[in-house]
Amino acid sequence: xxxxxxxxxxxxxxxxxxxxxxxxxxxxxxxxxxxxxxxxxxxxxxxxxxxxxxxxxxxxxxxxxxxxxxxxxxxxxxxxxxxxxxxxxxxxxxxxxxxxxxxxxxxxxxxxxxxxxxxxxxxxxxxxxxxxxxxxxxxxxxxxxxxxxxxxxxxxxxxxxxxxxxxxxxxxxxxxxxxxxxxxxxxxxxxxxxxxxxxxxxxxxx
Length: 206
Description:
206 residues, mainly alpha, transmembrane helix, cell membrane, transmembrane, DoxX-like_oxidoreductase, DoxX family protein
């Protein structure tokens, strides 16, 4: 069999996989829905603290109209979670969710660099993360000397939070993808509503 024929058949097989392209937006939605819900729920449950954090310029975000901003953030995250889960009005709802992510990126995470967890090596390592890595090594050493290291790390390794933009940018890119693709076929209300609207429009124009 000629190489060109093999290449064509391989491409045809690859193209056939597009029949399941609805899985990609579905998985993005199911991944992001609990992330958004927990972010909004935690803010709502401690609403007074959230407002204070939004407005305080010394140790918080120093945003104007903190009560309004906190309410908008909670609405975007809780409403967005429901929209993600149901696939309802999703392209519209990605807009306030992306706005919330941008605010978080530039007011909370930007000055910490890229990394969410401090790592002393790699492309995105900074002096801050190198110092954190050294402090973490010292903390592990002290815990080993005390004999408590094994007990304290049996559910996972110790890390130092760097709180960089890594996660927020990842969520932003996922939301941007959903803005362009929509909620996907079959398992979204947007898909069935659009089909109904298109069918009604076709009947009226006939």
